[in-house]
Amino acid sequence: MKLSEHMTLAELCKTNTGIENVPSEAQVENLKRLCRWLERLWLERLRRRWNDLYGEGDDPIVINSGFRSAAVNKAVGGAPTSNHLTGCAVDIRVAGLEQLMRYAVILLDISDESKEDFDELLLERNGAVMWLHFAVRPSGNRRKVRMI
Q: Reduced to 3 DSSP states, what percent helix, strand and coil does the chain have, rounded to the nearest 5?
């Protein structure tokens, strides 16, 4: 199932835990919102703008983690209140610090231009591995920006 032009349900539900990871209808709607956000296309706009400014013309946005069932979230050490549990968050793979920062700036610009808030934009790392955590809730978005 396509959630947007370039994002599929399968890629936003993949896991290497071996645990079943199937979202409910409401969680699928949250994943669609994350990809599209009422035609403001959060992840699609990130992809388009990255390619226009820095990419090779058709670079994908690679999702490390999207929706997580409670069992998957526990297995990967996710927070008990994680936005991943509701399908409202993705972790985006980056090639290094520069791409991480550019992705974050692009998403901040999209938020400012559209006057729509996100819930979390977290620049995360574990040793040498870095990723961008991005979340959009149906309501009550906090515009939380942090480097972890």
A: 40, 20, 45
Helix (H, G, I), strand (E, B) or coil at 93: strand
Specify which residues 135 forms β-bridges with: 89, 120
* pLDDT tens figures, 77-87: 999 999 999 99
Q: Which residues of 25-46 are buried (b: 16+ CB within 10 A; e: fewer)?
A: eebbebbbbbbbbeebbbbbbb
The CB density around residue 16, as the number of other CB atoms within 10 Å, is 9
Pairing of strands 89-93, 129-135: antiparallel
The SS3 of residue 126 is strand
Instruction: Please write the tens of the pLDDT for every residue from 9-59.
Output: 999 999 999 999 999 999 998 888 887 643 456 888 899 899 999 988 889
Pair of tokens at residue 9:
């349900």
